[in-house]
Amino acid sequence: MPKFFIKTYGCQMNERDSEQVAHSLIARGYERAAHETEADIVLLNTCSVRDMADQKALGKMGMLGQIAKRRPEVVFGFLGCMAQAQGKALFAGLPHVDLVVGTQKFHRVADYVEELLEKKRARRMDDPRFSICDTGEETGSEETICDHELKSQQATAFVSIMQGCNMHCTFCIVPRTRGPERSRSIEEVVREVRELVAHDVKEVTLLGQIVNLFGRHDIPKVNGKSPFVQLLEAVHEINGLERLRFTSPHPIGFRDDLIQALADLPKIAEHVHLPLQSGSNRILKAMHRPYTAEKYRLLVDRIRQARDEIAITTDVIVGFPGEDEEDYAQTRDLVEEIQFDNAFIFRYSTRRDTPAATMAGQVDEQVKERRNQDLLNVVDASARRANKRLVGRDVEILCEGPSRTNAARLMGRTRTNKIVVFEGKPEHVGEIFEVTVKRSNGFSLYGRPVV
What we know:
The chain is of the alpha/beta class. Helices cover about 35% and strands about 20% of the residues. The chain contains twelve helices and 19 strands. The strands form five sheets. The chain has a six-stranded parallel sheet, with helices on both faces. A five-stranded mixed β-barrel has the order 15-16-17-19-18. α11 (about 325-340) packs parallel to α12. The N and C termini lie far apart (about 45 Å). The model has no long low-confidence stretch (mean pLDDT about 95).
């Protein structure tokens, strides 16, 4: 049978989409290839949040043209956000590309791959360009990302609960690439998680572009609880589930009921990723982020009061159009004050067809880089302090498998989403147990299982 290779760029939602595509191909008898040179189908699942992600995917596909010259029967395709944004334009300059599939059509990929393989085998001379492009909208596509191809001893899984976004932040292309907000039913999500738990999954992460706005348009509140909190409660009740995570929320979706859920539902892991984007109220307004730095700081305090030792991570953009030194100083001061456990710092990247792309006051790249490096130093220092506080303590970890940097060791993740590397046995994989943290090195912890 043909072999396929999928390379994924970007976020956990893209990883989940790639998993769905892989599942659909395996269900038809296709096999995974260890490397693109061994594959009959090569697919790049793309990200468009920043220009660098676009360029990486385009550069990679350009290099794959060398394989196409030797093996013209191989199917090459773009999937995901960049495919959605650029569509047929991706065929230009890349003559070996056969397939472009957008964000609402992942469940169609296997059909299109089979059609293209059949045409290439037949070598129909009347149809020299065997290309397919599908970036159309599809009603109900949010319910199609629901199948899993679980590996042996896999203890964690992502569960997509919604697609799209209605917030329209001025820097963001996601509403264009992912479409409007669409949520699954609570019953379908619970069914999927139950099935995962039946296959020994112990931790699930609920995924959504703005996950805590789940169901707000079509699921009514119950006893003052939002649809998202209702979902958290329903998933929390599943026997055998040990840990529950969600990402990424929006500050405006953190109402009283969700903060109370953090206090009341012990299976929710002690980690919240809460995007800040800027500490300047002027820049937040220009970004169309409907909160102030003061409200964000208050929200962080309330989350920390609701759950002891909860880890908080964030996203920050530096160099947004119009950001001056005072705006950046306000961001730096807030990041220093909050002491995040970690943060993703991004230099503002112009995205076509977003309001920020044409705003006055575009910031010089050298200034962006200086601010980026400076803020990274602040975040790195607070992350090291957070890790150092764990040295000498026993922490609960879920062992996920071999360490990425040393296959002879295992790695596990704490409830606060910190990585612990340790020496262990194969039977540790997929299990929850305690380790004693012996030392800290940058963003990793090193420990020993508690006997």
